[in-house]
Amino acid sequence: MDGEAGNGKPRGRRRGFLKRAVAVGIMGLVPAGVRTAAWAAGSDAPEKKEVKIGFIPLTDCSSVVIASVMKFDEKYGIKITPSKEASWAAVRDKLVNGELDASHVLYGLIYGLQMGVGGPKKDMAVLMNLNHNGQAITLSKKLNDKGVKDGPSLAALIAKEKGDYTFAHTFPTGTHAMWIYYWLAAWGINPFADVKTITVPPPQMVANMRVGNMDGFCVGEPWNNRAIVDKIGFTANTTQDIWKDHPEKVLGCSAEFVQKYPNTARAMTAAVIDAGRWIDASLSNRQKTADIVSDRSYVNTDKDVIVARMLGRYDNGIGKVWDDKDYMKFYNDGYVTYPYLSDGMWFLTQHRRWGLLKTDPDYLAIAKQVNRLDVYKDAAAATKTSLPKDSMRAAKLIDGVTWDGRDPKRYAGGFKIKVA
Q: CA–CA separation, 164 vs 161, rounded Å?
């Protein structure tokens, strides 16, 4: 039996100490190595053994799928059931009402819910970042026939030939909306005044461009490459051209889920970290991943369409072929998976820039609330993933403007093209 403090008896086994540490909320004071050993022994076991994680048919759902298929989840005492969803709106609704425990989800969707834009206001959590890079801006062959090959030539055409130009993204507060808005604005095109923007689910992008519903879109792979293979579009820029090593999808859930099932949240995160590490470990693992996720249960398209850009082999569809070292990454020595506070803050600055937020929020405080560094750090300890020295990072984007998180209000208000 464990003794009580002050009664002269020893406190007992380490397991008893950990239980008391959790009870009084000082788990963070327990050394990481001790916590990891205790988890393996089951003293900090997941409260919920089976978890349903949503995903959209995109290449960057891979680490969630692999965590289940390759059974990385079993190591942490859980079973992950991937749930294929039809749209980001469906993911949003199911996260809010609890039909999904967590999801492969757009970074900005989580922040939109936190702020009550793009859906009902609900406290949310980012457990980890799932990938960097690997999205693209696809323009139609019709535009190419008019001489468009990139952003500057598109801007020149729009200035010369007035008309109804339509561009699609996948969700109003999501990453693809922010990338295409940022990309258009970088070339002097106002995404809300000079062109029309619409929302289309990722798997429907190619079909909609085929029938002429749009002039361009931003989406994750493999749908950009699918448009090239089907000879209906070309890549104007990759999103890594917009921001090298940009944040993209996250493993997201409600704050309520983390509060109710903290050990399960940690186990989910650890399993997906391990899966991302496995994918990035070798090109053969990436090829095997492409084979798995191409199945109709997941992305449901030809493996060859997925694997090329997973290996960094790019063809823009109008004569340029290159090897891109900044292709989609899922782990990259842990750098990918860490949920940097500055990444979350950036999406808030863009929501403010484009009028989704009417006033400047407390950017850092919200990021600290949403990005659950506490859960991630415990999962990193369990997976032996190193942590960065700082929870903020800096980058220079395609327009030459540097983002470092230091003055988000000034940054958000400093763009020439924005919604007043």
A: 10
How do residues 167-199 score in pLDDT, each as one tens digit?
Answer: 999 999 999 999 999 999 999 999 999 999 999
Burial 323-362 (b: 16+ CB within 10 A, else e): ebebbbbbbeebbbbbbbbbbbbbbbbbbbbbebbeeebe
Token pair for 291: 């084979």
φ, ψ of residue 344 in degrees (nearest 5):
-65, -40
Q: What is the mean pLDDT of the chain?
A: 92
Q: Is the dihedral of CA 414, 418, 419, 420 positive or negative?
A: positive
Q: Quote the CA–CA distance of 324 and 307 in Å, as a whole number.
A: 13
Per-residue pLDDT tens over the stretch 236-286 = 999 999 999 999 999 999 999 999 999 999 999 999 999 999 999 999 999
Model pTM? Answer: 0.90
Is beta strand 196-199 parallel, antiparallel or unpaired with respect to 166-169?
parallel
Identify which of 331, 313, 342 has the alpha carbon closest to the alpha carbon of residue 272.
331
Q: Could you give the CA distance from residue 265 to residue 273 in angstroms, rounded to a whole number? A: 12
Question: What gap in Å lies between CA 348 and CA 62, rounded to an integer?
Answer: 26
Residue 314 and residue 324: Cα distance in Å, rounded?
Answer: 7
Nearest Cα to Cα of residue 44 among 59, 27, 29? 27
For helices 175-186 and 107-115, the axis angle rounded to 10 degrees is 100
Q: HSE-up of 254 (CA within 13 Å, CB side)?
A: 19
In our burial notation (b when 16+ CB lie closer than 10 A, e otherwise), range 243-270 reads bbebbbbbbbbbeebbeebbbbbbbbbb
Label residue 71 left, alpha or beta by phi (over 0 means left) and psi (-120 to 50 means alpha): left
Backbone angles phi, psi at 358, to 5 degrees: -85, -20
CA 180/CA 324 separation, integer angstroms: 20
Helix (H) or strand (E) holding 68: helix 62-69
Contact yes or no for 135/238 (Cβ under 8 A)? yes
φ, ψ for residue 292, nearest 5 deg: -70, -50
Count of helices and strands (H, E) across the chain: 19, 14
Is omega for the bond preceding 201 within 30 degrees of 0, making it cis?
no
Going by their DSSP bridges, the two strands 124-129 and 135-140 should be labelled as unpaired
249-254 and 124-129: which strand pairing? Answer: antiparallel
Q: How far apart are CA 285 and CA 394, in angstroms?
A: 30
CA gap 228, 322 in Å, rounded: 15
